[in-house]
């Protein structure tokens, strides 16, 4: 790999996610949207983002957002170990995967990049724990039992924290954020793909501001 900026340690990343509370999950098709999107995020003080690698523009968008010093930018929808390398080279400060693929997790550990693999069952949570991971992504959260399932995982396996994503929006995010095991919630409701494609920046700014207000009302809900 080419040289890349030093990576923050996992504890620092998790603390910043907890402080942010709400993590926009971005699916961006056009790299030209990166600059106005970054402005909308900065304006609303949403400082932690997950840029998914679902589109051809994903890595370039990640690089543009990672260059913004006020943003903690991570890579999402990481499916292959080579994508871990690409994401880190593009400036990702953390990696998120929809499932727990041991090869992806192992590559993240080799590179020293914090990783939040997706988990939806107790067995997967235990596998994440076996890797020594302090946190995982609960995905798809709503379809996998929502807050009651999350509460059951946390009761049985208390040394893992979660970032729920999937089916979460402005109306139900607070219920997750009230759970002590939750670092923060991920969602795309503040900058959905269709609004990004239409360049609906006024609407995106409004949604980002609402998400930031939600984050502010839940700030300090629990100690790190």
TrEMBL record:
GO molecular function, one term: 2-dehydro-3-deoxy-phosphogluconate aldolase activity
E.C. code: 4.1.2.14
Pathway annotation: Carbohydrate acid metabolism
UniProt keyword list: Carbohydrate metabolism, Lyase
InterPro entries associated with the record: Aldlse_KDPG_KHG (IPR000887), Aldolase_TIM (IPR013785)
A Pfam entry, by short name: Aldolase
Classification via CDD domains: KDPG_aldolase
Family that this chain belongs to: Belongs to the KHG/KDPG aldolase family.
Oligomeric and partner information: Homotrimer.
Family annotation (NCBIfam families): eda
Protein name: 2-dehydro-3-deoxy-phosphogluconate aldolase
